[in-house]
Amino acid sequence: MAPLNVLMVGTGEYTTGWVGTGGSTSDKKVGVVGLTLFDLRRRGKVGELSMVGVNGKKYPDIRNHLEKNIKNVYNNLDVSFKSYPADTAVDPDSYKTAIDALSPGSAITIFTPDTTHFPIALYAIRKGIHVLITKPATKTLEDHLTLIAEAKKANVFVYVEHHKRFDPVYSDARAKAKNLGDFNYFYSYMSQPKSQLETFKAWAGRDSDISYYLNSHHIDINESMVPGYRPYKVTASGSTGCATDLGCVGGTEDTITLLTNWVKKDDPSKTATGVYTASWTAPQKAGVHSNQYFHYMASKGEIRANQAKRGYDVTDDDLGGLSWYNPFYMPYAPDEEGNFNGQTGYGYISFEKFVDACTALNEGRVTLAQLDVRGLPTLRNTVVTGAILHAGRVSLDEKRSVGIEEVDGVLRLV
């Protein structure tokens, strides 16, 4: 069978490293999606590549950026792709044209504002196309459940890009947590510097929030640690001021905390608490792009993981001080022969697992149910995360605690 053809939906920082006015200044200067797929094409796992955005006028700059920062840096890495819309056009519905050009069994990746995930994914699923969606899969629990049903009907794979599952420390912690007895307490924190608000200003506070963007990582980790528990109540609180001072719309939260109550499914006398905090107003020179850590406590032990400062620091006068790097996410440095060397990074592994799963499904070597059992971040394996995030947003908007019920195996907010 021919390699998987892939359409990249979204042309921004995570896909290309280009942010409209130039290359990103974050730790993803050449992006992740495009770079990974270019290498998977070199390795024969991916076939034809295409990209779609709203504004085709960006493509000349994007191509120059990729030529300079990828093709001219690594050996044998072809950065070509077919693009939609034309370089002179602006078309918010161009994703439909691009998806229509794919054959059933092809795949798309979605890295666009959160409110667009559902309509793009649904359109692709109904065309028989496999889908990778950046977290959160959707903003509402109802939309998440709709995608599960539609994907099952079309027999296509939908994967939520929760790459923290493949961070070697987090992955090991998830495995060990399952042997530590009953879940009791989980606390997490994740933040990014205020400079990110400039990148996300077009949608921050309008279409989505920092909890959907960052809390989604640790909620997914917690969910995957405790399959025997379910959440039953979410109470959210947020702080405001910094983001709006920096030009975001009024009411944009700087920091959001979700207090979540959990209960053991087969023993309601056992309950647990999850506290998830996310912020995008950390200091500009915090030394890391993402502060990220958690504390998990259970009846027979506890786990603490700090993945911000990994014992690897660099002092650079041009950067203004000490910085902590994360080479485990995506090693960008070429190998001794000048080849791309990032295949062991968990940012890369996440995409490779999606591509491999789509290929196996196309070839009849695996079923959707078997992919769910593998513990991959499928739609079905992330529905609890979707419910908590949606409940948190409702809690903030309506200033109340929001319940989560399970009726006949299906979650709903109350």
Automatic annotation (TrEMBL):
Q: Which GO terms describe its molecular function?
A: nucleotide binding; oxidoreductase activity
Q: Which GO terms describe its cellular component?
A: cytoplasm
InterPro entries named in the record: Gfo/Idh/MocA-like_OxRdtase_N (IPR000683), NAD(P)-bd_dom_sf (IPR036291)
Q: Name one GO biological process term.
A: NADPH regeneration
Enumerate the spans annotated as Gfo/Idh/MocA-like oxidoreductase N-terminal domain: 103-162
PANTHER family to which the protein is assigned, alphabetical: BINDING ROSSMANN FOLD OXIDOREDUCTASE, PUTATIVE (AFU_ORTHOLOGUE AFUA_3G11930)-RELATED (PTHR42840:SF6), NAD(P)-BINDING ROSSMANN-FOLD SUPERFAMILY PROTEIN-RELATED (PTHR42840)
UniProt name for this protein: NAD(P)-binding protein
Q: Which organism is it from?
A: Choiromyces venosus 120613-1
